[in-house]
Structures are given as C-alpha cells and as structure tokens.
Amino acid sequence: MNALHGSIDSTGLVSGPPSRLPTAHGLFALRTYTLNGTAHAVMSIGDPAKADAPLIRVHSECLTGDALGSHRCDCGDQLSASLAAIAQAGDGVLIYLRGHEGRGIGLENKLRAYALQDAGLDTVAANRALDLPDDARDYTAAAAILHDLDCPQITLLSSNPSKVTALEDMGITVADRLSLQVPDRPENAGYLEAKRRLMDHIAPAGHSHEDQTETDTECAASTAYAENTLAVYDTIAGGDEVVAQLAQSEDGFIATSKGDAQFVSGQIDRAHLHRIRASVGAVLVGCGTVIADDPRLTVRAVPGVNPVRVVLDPHGRIPATATVLTSPEAPTIWLTGAEIVPPPDIGDHVRMVRLPATTENEISPAAIVSLIRERVSGAILVEGGGRTVSSFLSAGILDRLFLTSAPVLIGNGVPGIRFVGTEVMAEALRRPFRRYRFGEDMCTEYLLSELARDGSARDPDLHPGAASTA
Ligand SMILES: [Zn+2]
Asked: Ligand 1: distance of its center to the CA of 61 in Å?
C-alpha cells in the first residue's frame, strides 16, 4: 500500500493516506476507507497487525449520540469508552462505519422513529411501524477493512452478538468479545433494556447496582475488560513494588462515621482490586480494617492465586474470630507485639511475627516492608485502611498508588488519604499519573517511584503530573 496516497484493493475498497489525530484518549492515526461511495473513518493506534487478536471496535455512526451528546442511546459513551480501551491496550482499531445511522435506516427515519418512541413504542416496534427493518446495517466494509489492515483475528468490543456473526461470516475470527463498561443512564435505560430483550444485546456485567455484594464475584466481563486494558498488572506481577489501593468518596472518606463501607466504589473497581491481589505476593492491612470489615483478602473476582495475608496489629487488637485467623484459604502473617499471647486454637495457616519494640509509637513502614520481604517474595499490596495507606505514602515507601474516587459524598466518616501535607501548593505531592474509568468511578494511578515509572515507561497515557504554570 502506498503510505501517502492510499490504495484500492480487489473488493473496490479505497484507502486514503493516514494522518495524525490527537484525541482526549491518545494519539491515533486516522484514514478513510471508501467502499461503494461511503467513506468510513478508521482510527488506529500501535501496531494492530502484530497483535494476536487486537482490540477492535466496529462503531455504527450515530450523529445524535456521538456528536450531539444525546442520552437517548449510549453510542457516545460507547465510542468514548472504546477509544479509551483501545488506547490503553496500545494496539487496536476503531472502525467508524458511516451510513449506519439508526441501525442503517438513516437520520431522517431515525428521528421519525424517535417521535414514535416518544409516543410510547419501543425501539423495535417504532421501526416496524415505519415499515423499516429492525437492523439494516451491513458489515462488509468493516470486514474488508480488517482484512486490509491484516487483522483477520480480533477481540471485539461490543455488546451485540449479531456483529460477531456478521464479521465471522466474512472471514474474521472473533477470538473474544468484550462488553464495554458503560453505565445505563435514566434517559436510555428503557432503550437499552429493549435492545437486550428484543435484539439479544448482552448487558455488561455489574450494570445493575442492586446485586452488588462482596461475595458476588460473577463479574467476568468487567474483569476481562480490565485485563485487556491494564498491562499494569503484568508489570506489578513481574516486580517487587510496594503498591497501594484505596477507594474513597469524592470528599475523601472510605466509610461512614459508623464504619459502613459497603460499598464506596463499584464492581469494576473491586475486580481491579482482586486483579492486583492476584499480582502480588503479599497483601497488607492494618488491624482497624480487620476489626471493621473482617476481610478475606483472597482473589475471587478473577482467576489467580491468593497472596499471603499480612495483618499489622502491634497491640493484638484483632479478634480471635477474624477470618484471616480462622480461615485457612490463604496463609496469614500476623505482625504483632512481643507480649501478645495468641489464641489457643490458632490455625496452622497463621504465622506470628513479632514486631521489634520501638521507642517511638509506631514501627516504620520501611521496617514492616523488610519483615514481609524476608518471608514473601514478589510485590506487596497495601490495601488499607486509610491510615495504613497514608502512613506508607507519607513515608515514601510506595512505588504505586491506585486511588479510586467514587461519585458519592459521605460528608464525614473514616478518612481516606490524610498525611501531614505542605503549606506551599507548589510543594504538594505531584507525580506522573494515569486515569482509568471504572464504570462510574475514576481511578487515578500515581507512579510514585522511579521503579514504577521505569516499569510503566512504555505504557501510553502517562501524564507528567507537573504543576501547571498557568
Ligand atoms: Zn446512538
């Protein structure tokens, strides 16, 4: 193919030259592919032909949703989430299929159908009332484009099984299909429900908030999404960083004043937490977290091996009935003071490690990390609570911090990140960071140390985190 002038292939597909397209999600290459007089826009990043099954979104044009900000459908959210996921994956393509407006009936007919829907018909019934097909979209161009890009095997970002069938009928192997984590909006919940009921669309896992429970681990789609977008888990698993994770409300609390923490963040964030647990050798919590939440600290939402549980409990405050002491599903290291007497029936999976006596009030985070490293290899996850994570952060021991902010205001409660800060704004802690949208939550990953920055230097989307000079 001639890089500057484009080309025409045997199917009549004409490709234009690539140009640079900087976007909110990263720098893409944009070119047109024209078939039968319709020019489709193709955005690519990285080297999709080199990937085994690159992340692909085949997006149907929707002027109202994509450009006009309409909440009648979820097209705009899907478009944005697709570009974010593809940029994070590093290699992938978004094929923007023109002429697919209103599932192929065109803008004018789509708005006629909207008027009928306003009068009470669902999306399928409205099309039928206008004597129009439920779905008139044709994916010939998408398949031809994928063949031209040398991507015969793909991972498709879609909730629509008929797209999978259509592409496979034209010689594209869909190795995997991932639903995007786009929450329904009040304005489009009825429309999306109709697509799921009448057109076999698949709801993203965890889109219902009613069935969130700590033991509910059936969030395979959200897990798959995170796996495919966050190379950072491999980086963590391959090294020995000290990583922290905390989910807090927008106003900085991890629980209410009564200690109720169920739940601050959503299912995708919890799948993310389990994925980090599966990537580390040890997971550390303070005794306050064990007393308040009685966590299991195991890997349940994703496949993986349970890390060694480490409880920091200098004064022996955790109850003998705590799950970490009674449940043998993972080894537990109980870091406690020299004078603490263990309960008589303590499980074989528990190993007491005596903390050295200190003249100061608290043992230093660096000393705690050393005690863990002597016994467990791999990365260490500092999981909570707010006090423990904050003390590790302010001691400069953390390599990486995932801080998830949930769109909820608690007002007053158990604080999240708090440390003795700076009086001068210019000296406040800023580090390179990345952001991940986990459904309704926003996770900021701070790369605090050189080790973390070197480990993730090749990843896209890293913001320098320098103070604005404006
Ligand atoms: Zn739409």
From this structure: 8
Gap from CA of 102 to ligand 1 centroid (Å): 7
Mean pLDDT of the chain: 85
CA–CA separation, 212 and 215 (whole Å): 8
User: How many degrees, rounded to 5, is the angle at CA 461 between CA 460 and CA 465?
Assistant: 130
The model's confidence at residue 210, banded by pLDDT at 50, 70 and 90, is very low
What separation in Å is there between the alpha carbon of 260 and the centre of ligand 1?
A: 39
Report pLDDT for 206: 38
List, in order of start, the domains of the chain with CATH numbers: 7-100+137-198 (3.40.50.10990), 220-455 (3.40.430.10)
CB of 442 closer than 8 Å to CB of 405: yes
Active site amino acids: 135, 137
CA distance 94 to 248: 33
pLDDT above 80 (res 117): yes
Mean pLDDT across 326-355: 91
For residue 95 the two structure tokens come to 């094929």
